[in-house]
Specification:
Blueprint (H helix, E strand, L loop, with lengths): L5 E7 L5 H14 L4 E6 L9 E7 L25 E4 L2 H9 L9 E5 L6 H4 L9 H11 L2 E5 L1 H7 L4 H11 L7 H11 L3 H16 L4 H11 L6 H8 L6 H14 L2 H20 L5 H14 L4 H8 L2 H11 L10 E4 L3 H5 L4 H11 L8 E4 L3 H11 L9 H23 L1 H9 L8 H19 L4 H13 L4 H6 L18 H8 L1
Parallel strand pairs: 1-4, 4-5, 5-6
Antiparallel strand pairs: 1-3, 2-3, 7-8
Helix pairs in contact: 1-7, 2-4, 5-6, 6-8, 7-8, 10-11, 11-12, 11-13, 12-13, 12-19, 13-19, 13-20, 14-18, 19-20, 19-21, 20-22, 21-22
């Protein structure tokens, strides 16, 4: 009796070894004399889609078929896939969205980590996709779900994610291959064999022990929590329950960003808002939003922070893990930086920064830098830049941000007494402040217009509409319409023609 082929769909991002994984499956099937066929559909750069590999394996040796040849398909049909493997959470969601899984047939294996898409990063608001929707859909649309953080396991094993994904696929029991045959295919590939076998074994064991996966994830998350000083614990205990976890995270973030004194100022401001909210009869909703967005705002990005993060030991270790560098191997790292005049002036004292900005004029272009941070000179330059951290409270950017924060907090506390709903909307407007350069300037402008409206007595509904308009339209036109203000003039964007280097070489040769 003829069996049905085993249909396999693999969705992987660029650089994650999806093609190598597909080759391993083909190699195993060929070694077992199973008929196999594969096709692939390339994805798009800049994280807008994955490359998908579709394979069909007939799980009987050719010798047992009596000269007959199974007909294998080139593309998957809706609900006609036995095993789906995705290297990232939302890529699993794409497969489910396309209707390729079947609740009575499909086993879904995917990594729970995120590689954010361009469409998520470009949003003014929180553009991240809700990962819980993928889990909900997976439980409804797949027969079995095997999901855990495969990227983390790959890093710890010194390999890339395709080895862990392959192990999880085999550990699911849906591939018609024995484990030793799969390990033999990895050995025959001859590339990073030992690390690949470690990743395969880790993925296989994790998939085989499905019931322990969730518990291990929770234990790992709990192990990452850091103890707080006694005085901070006491201050957090006095806050409303919804505010405490956010304020604790904010304190830890800002102590790392600047110092403990800076973090204590943050906690004092959150405490003051919570006290005013308590007087108004609130339960902590406003305080929670302030704790969230004030921490992000006070930890604003600048070139000092970038230099500090780039010189941390854990970052260098992560780079070595990601590229698979062995102990003793030299790793060449080139940092691509493009600081603008505004970023450089932001480090200077306010008066000096204003003078320099006037001298620079309106055309303040950035300049590109390629810094070899693996060299002594390059790494020393980054260390020198991170040393400006102690001077940050005297910088022009610090003064600008602190003044804007004080106005925002004052507007929130002023509205708590007469209209708590309006105060809550103003607290949520902290989400407008993010990024650097033009993005930060647009956010400050939008927040300023909303605060102007609040000071003139705008109600909660008006403030909510204005906030949503500002997040939806970075240009500010929707915000101006929502507040009945003149729309901002279109900003001219210069077009610069740059001669290509090869053309220059041809002209000078």
């Amino acid at each position: 009796m003829m069996q049905k082929p085993v249909s396999i769909l693999v969705a992987a991002l660029g650089g994650e070894g999806g093609g190598v994984l597909s080759d391993w499956i083909i190699d195993v099937a060929t070694a077992l004399d199973f008929p196999v066929q594969s096709t692939s559909v390339p994805g798009v750069a800049q994280r807008t889609g994955a490359t998908t590999y579709y394979l069909e394996v007939y799980p009987q040796p050719r010798a047992a078929l009596g000269g007959r040849q199974p007909v294998l398909a080139l593309t998957p049909g809706p609900g006609d896939v036995d095993l789906v493997a995705a290297s990232e959470l939302v890529e699993a969601g794409r497969v489910l969205q396309n209707g390729l899984a079947d609740p009575a047939r499909t086993t879904l294996v995917f990594s729970t980590h995120r590689e954010y898409a361009v469409a998520e990063k470009m949003q003014m608001g929180d553009g991240r996709y809700d990962g819980e929707r993928v889990f909900d859909a997976a439980r409804e649309l797949a027969r079995e779900v095997i999901a855990f953080d495969m990227r983390d396991i790959a890093w710890r094993q010194g390999t890339i994610i395709n080895t862990v994904l392959f192990g999880a696929m085999v550990g699911s029991g849906r591939l018609p291959f024995p484990r030793d045959a799969c390990e033999a295919a990895i050995r025959r590939s001859g590339k990073a064999v030992e690390a690949s076998l470690r990743g395969f074994a880790a993925g296989y064991e994790r998939a085989a022990a499905r019931s322990q996966a969730a518990a291990e994830e929770r234990e790992a998350a709990a192990a990452q929590s850091l103890p707080l000083p006694a005085e901070v614990d006491a201050a957090l205990a006095a806050l409303p329950p919804p505010v405490r976890p956010l304020a604790a995270e904010g304190w830890a973030q800002l102590a790392d960003y600047q110092d403990a004194a800076y973090a204590r100022r943050y906690l004092e401001q959150v405490t003051q808002v919570c006290a005013r909210e308590r007087e108004a009869g609130g339960a902590g909703a406003v305080g929670a939003e302030v704790a969230r967005f004030l921490a992000l705002w006070m930890g604003y990005e600048d070139v000092v922070r970038v230099a500090e993060l780039k010189t941390r030991g854990e970052r260098l270790e992560r780079l070595r893990r990601e590229v698979g560098a062995k102990p003793g191997e030299v790793l060449r790292v080139t940092e691509y930086l493009k600081p603008g005049m505004e970023e450089l002036c932001s480090l200077l004292p306010p008066r000096l920064a204003q003078w320099l900005e006037r001298r620079a004029g309106p055309q303040r272009r950035g300049f590109a830098l390629r810094l070899r941070s693996d060299t002594v000179a390059g790494f020393a330059a980054l260390c020198l830049l991170r040393g400006f951290k102690r001077w940050r409270p005297r910088s022009a950017r610090y003064a600008t941000e602190q003044a804007a924060m004080r106005r925002w907090l004052a507007a929130i506390t002023a509205r708590l007494a007469d209209e708590p709903a309006a105060a809550l909307e103003l607290a949520r407007c902290g989400n407008l402040i993010k990024g650097y350069g033009d993005t930060a300037a647009r956010g400050r402008r939008s927040l300023g217009l909303i605060l102007d409206a609040a000071e003139q007595g705008a109600d909660a509904a008006t403030l909510r509409t204005a906030r949503e308009a500002a997040l939806a339209d970075p240009a500010g036109q929707a915000l101006s319409r929502s507040l009945s203000l003149p729309e901002p003039a279109a900003r001219p964007v210069p077009v610069r023609l740059v001669r290509r280097r090869q053309e220059e070489d041809a002209l000078t040769s």
